[in-house]
């Protein structure tokens, strides 16, 4: 799908009926953050609070994400944050493959306009949609992949840390890796290395 500009993409998403998830939502959550942005975070799908408010990661998973960002020296407002699917699946079930396929052109278009250097995949749904359809998050988290000139860094979904506290340290390690990579890119850019 081609969109003339960001506003056109926004209008299309706001009125989207490409999959049945549109039938049960209060708000479609496109995402938030600066455009362009050096770093993009991609989660799975809006949850109950996100659906209510129309913003990504503002519920319990968002609180964990905020803590991870703060603990790694990252400012939330400097990142673009979105999800693989823009509508909340009923009862927070995982989005189905056909729903992901229906929604993916929007994420791809967002990436085109936002032009991130680094994309952090939060959880296996994002990692499978963007890095490798067979990916297992426990095996690939913390590794950096380079695709089409963009670095991809998969890590656990913040909600997984709510269920399994043992993953918190690993997630923190991954966010610190993100900070280090970002710092290095900025340093290289300012010294003219491409
Ligand atoms: N979980 C997600 O994957 N995304 C959100 O925006 C909120 C919870
Ligand atoms: Fe459209 Fe995506 Fe919502 Fe499905 S999830 S209705 S494709 S915006």
Could you please describe the fold and organization of this structure?
This protein has 194 residues and is α/β, with parallel strands linked by helices. It has a single domain, classed as 3-Layer(aba) Sandwich (Uracil-DNA Glycosylase, subunit E). Helices cover 44% and strands 12% of the residues. It has eight helices and five strands, in the order H-E-H-H-E-H-E-H-H-E-E-H-H. The chain has helices at residues 6-14, 48-53, 60-71, 97-114, 124-130, 137-140, 158-163, 168-190, and strands at 39-43, 80-83, 118-122, 145-147, 150-155. A five-stranded mixed sheet has the order 2-1-3-5-4, sandwiched between helices. The longest helix is centred in the C-terminal third of the chain and has 23 residues, at 168-190. It starts with 5 loop residues before the first helix and ends with a helix. The mean pLDDT is 97. The site of uracil has 12 residues, from loops.
CATH domain fold name: Uracil-DNA Glycosylase, subunit E
Number of helices: 8
Task: Label the overall shape.
Answer: globular
What is the architecture at the second tier of CATH? 3-Layer(aba) Sandwich
Q: Could you state the order of secondary-structure elements as H and E?
A: HEHHEHEHHEEHH
Averaged pLDDT: 97
Quantity of strands, as a count: 5
Work out the count of structural domains.
Answer: 1
Rg over CA atoms, rounded to whole Å, is 16 Å
For the biggest sheet, the summary is: 5 strands, mixed
Low-confidence stretches: none
Approximately what portion of the residues adopt beta-strand conformation?
5-15%
The CATH homology group name? Uracil-DNA glycosylase-like domain
CATH C-level label = Alpha Beta
Helix content: 40-55%
* Biggest sheet: strand arrangement: 2-1-3-5-4
């Amino acid at each position: 799908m081609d969109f003339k500009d960001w506003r056109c993409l926004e209008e299309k998403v706001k009125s989207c009926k490409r999959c049945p998830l549109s039938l049960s939502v209060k708000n479609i959550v496109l995402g938030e953050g600066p455009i362009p942005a050096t770093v993009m975070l991609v989660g799975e799908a809006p949850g109950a609070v996100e659906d209510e408010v129309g913003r990504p990661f503002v519920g319990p998973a968002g609180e964990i994400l905020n803590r991870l960002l703060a603990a790694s020296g990252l400012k939330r407002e400097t990142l673009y944050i979105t999800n693989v699917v823009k509508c909340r699946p009923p009862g927070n079930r995982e989005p189905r493959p056909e729903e992901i396929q229906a929604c993916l052109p929007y994420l791809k278009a967002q990436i085109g306009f936002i032009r991130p250097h680094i994309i952090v995949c939060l959880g296996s749904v994002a990692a499978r949609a963007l890095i490798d359809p067979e990916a297992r998050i426990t095996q690939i988290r913390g590794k950096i992949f380079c695709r089409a000139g963009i670095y991809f860094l998969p890590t656990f979904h913040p909600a997984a840390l709510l269920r399994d506290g043992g993953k918190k340290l690993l997630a923190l390690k991954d966010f610190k890796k993100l900070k280090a990579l970002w710092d290095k890119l900025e340093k290289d850019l300012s010294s003219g290395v491409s």
